[in-house]
Amino acid sequence: MTANNDYNCFTVTIENRIAHVRLNRPDELNSMNKAFWLELPQCIRAIEVDSDARVIVISSTGKHFSAGMDLSVFSDPSAVPMNGDPGRMAENLRRVVLQLQDSLSSLERARIPVLVAIQGGCIGGALDLVCAADSRYCTRDAFFTIKETELGMTADVGTLQRLPKLMPQGLVRELAYTGRKFGADEAREQGLVNRVFDDAESMMESVMKIAADIAANSPLAVTGCKEMLNYSRDHTVADSLNYVATWQAGMFRPNDMMLTFQAKAQKQAAEYPDLFAVKSLFEG
C-alpha cells in the first residue's frame, strides 16, 4: 500500500505494514519550515487512519537528517506579529509555540511505535523531533546539538522536557547551557540512541528489520506497550501499576494469544487482525 504523497516536506511509502516517512528537502538540509510543522501531524494521522501500518520509520535524504527550525517560521508576520500591543504579541507567540509543540507530540501520541534513523546533523528542532520518537538509531557521522542556546533563545518544543528522561540530568544541563555538539558514540553511551551504524545503508537495513519484527507482533499488544511506557515515564510506579491493571481489565482478550499458540503449533507466523481505524466523529 502506498500512502498519499501530497506533502511538500515528506515522502511516504507503506509496505508490509511499515510506514516509511522521509524528510525530503535535502537542498535545504531538511530544515523545518512552516509546511513541515503543518504536515507532520497530518502525515502521522493519515498513516494511523488510512493505512494498515503498525510501525512508523522516519528517516531523511541528503547529508544531514535536519538542520532544525527554519527561521522563516518566525519571520512570517501573519503567524508571529512583531508590532502592536506587547501583551497581545506575547499571547500570540505562546499559541504559536504550543502549536509547534503539538506538531512534534504527534509522534508520541501515535498509538504505533515511531523509530527514527539519523544521519549527519540533528540540530535544534530536529533534536526536539527525535526525542518524541520511541527509539533512535544513527550513523557514526551523526551529531546532535541543542542549537537554540547558541542562537540566544531557550529550546521550547520538547528537548528540555524529553531529553532528561533519556539521558542523565547533569549531562543534559551541560548540553543545554553550552549548546555544544555531541557525537554518535556519546549519544549511544548516554542512552539517546540504541545503536550506531557505519553508514546509512546498514542503518536503514537494520531499522527496517526492527520495524518488521514490531509489525509481526499483535498490534493490540504493541499499542498497549507504548501506552504503558509513556504513562509510566510521567507517573509513579504505583500509579502506573494501577493503570496497567485497568488497561488489562478493559483491553485484554485471549484472541491474539490463541492465534499465537496456534501459529507456534503449526510452526507458522501468526496473523493478527489490524486495529480499528481511528476516525473523528466528524469524519465521514
TrEMBL record:
- Highest taxon of source: Bacteria
InterPro entries per record: ClpP/crotonase-like_dom_sf, Ech1-like, Enoyl-CoA_hydra/iso, Enoyl-CoA_hydra_C
Q: Which SUPFAM superfamilies match?
A: ClpP/crotonase
Q: Which family does it belong to?
A: Belongs to the enoyl-CoA hydratase/isomerase family.
What name goes with this protein? Crotonase/enoyl-CoA hydratase family protein
* Organism per entry: Marinobacter xestospongiae
Q: What is the lineage of its organism?
A: Bacteria, Pseudomonadati, Pseudomonadota, Gammaproteobacteria, Pseudomonadales
